[in-house]
Amino acid sequence: MATVPQPAVAGHGATRHPVTTAIWPLGALAILFVLQATMVFTRAINWDEFFFWHEVAQFSGGQLDRPLQTFHVRLFGWLPPFYTNSVDGIVTARLFMLGCEMVTVASITVLAQRFTDWQTALFAGLLYLSAGYVLQHGMSFRADPMLAATLTGALAILGTSRLSIPALAAFGLLCGLAGMLSMKAVLFAPAFVALAWLRACESGFSLQRLLQLAGGGVATGLFFALLYIWHSTGLVPESDAVGQGGKMIGISAGWMFFIGLPVYAQMAIKSMLIAPILYVWLLATPLVIARSSLDRAEKVALAGLWLPIVSLFFYANTAAYFYAFILPPVVVACCLPLRWGIIRFGPQLMTLSLMVTAVVVWVSEDRAVIDRQRQVVENVHEIFGQPVTYIDQNFMLADWPKANGFMTPWGMSSYYEANRPAYRTALGQQTVPMILANSADLLAMLEGDGGLLLPEDAAAIRNNFRLFSWPIWVAGKEYPASSTEFGDEFLVPGAYTLQGGPLEIDGLVLAEGMVIHLDRGIHRIRNPGLTPVTLTWGDHLRQPSRPLRPDAIHVDF
Prior knowledge:
This protein has 22 helices and 11 strands. The chain is α+β, with helices and mostly antiparallel strands.
């Protein structure tokens, strides 16, 4: 292990507080893991987590059609039969993600020891876990915690092992698995290249070492191919769902990469505010590396570990959860300024400074949102009794058929690029009796205040759905008292229940409470009574026993 000398900083005594114990970072790590374990059960489910659970439910039901970036379903495909409420299933899956995060922290510590001492390596793990976005999303149910664990574990093997055949096999398995989990694993490339260069340099570029490194690459390709073949076996052929399909793949390549300021610049700023100490060391790292007395190969290795953070300036999907994925190699690179800080200020003050912001983030959590999310799902089940096709933002009803695609910035970019009324088309091809307004934009569009959808789509939805029990819109119409007959288009066929008084439909006068089956198309309507009336899809759908008042059902990043 290389001995890391202290950078020369005028006016500071380098040995004022010698590091003699690991109790402080170990204790802090234990406390933060306990706090985060409570967040597994109390933090609101994010839209992306609902989507990941939907893919698990698809796989469990034999309907998954995408082999790439869906390998997580192999781990969790047994869970959906045990849960009717997707919120509870996701909470259970989060426990596995918490374990992945523990592996990540352990791997950070092991790799950091390659460049510093044991105590500073533990502080590198604490620097990662205490970062606000990591504390909030490091155990969330998405690819990022698994990617962080597999890739950081592979880096630890590459940087510290003897590169024996078992070690290279483990390295290849972890990297191949990471590639199956998400293609953004490639963002760790600078870290892998830099560590490979370091291992080659330390051996004097011996043939044996070069063959070992090449063997790691071959093992990665082999395991990726084997995992892909195994996972793709038995999946259904790729389908053309609304808002998805082949064209989205082409659009995504242009949408996901850019040059300039971060797409999620506000989240980047917030990440600094809820992890200020991290950013102090992160920004100081390049200068400290350059001024250190490490040999050139070690400097290159640390620089390569730091470089993945630059992806913020060219990779678009850098929302809050991205930081749990991208930060592990970066905090390893921060070990040099961390070492200086521990010696200069002492382990106690360093620990407390990291803990303060982390605890503030934990205390500020809105723990009521997850209960509202759970109640939304229960209310939908109570209203309909059995699955119906629906529209929402994020697949909140995992195993119910959905008529639209994922309404993320990426998905909506594809929708706008196509410039076709996909939602009206879906209503014309499927029976879609419900819209779950689980995003602010979707809610604003339903209430007539937003331009989320193309005008033709927005008009079709507003004219065919009415609020039934917040945030659940059901296919239906409202008619004020009027003796004038007019034509009205129905895009959702099925039984409709009349409430509020009599109504004449296609010359047939219906009384209050009657049910009529209406086909898709234009029907002649006249309200001969003195009061407004409503037509609601379904045969006397019941209001939920625990209706919700309008309130947040997601937590902002």
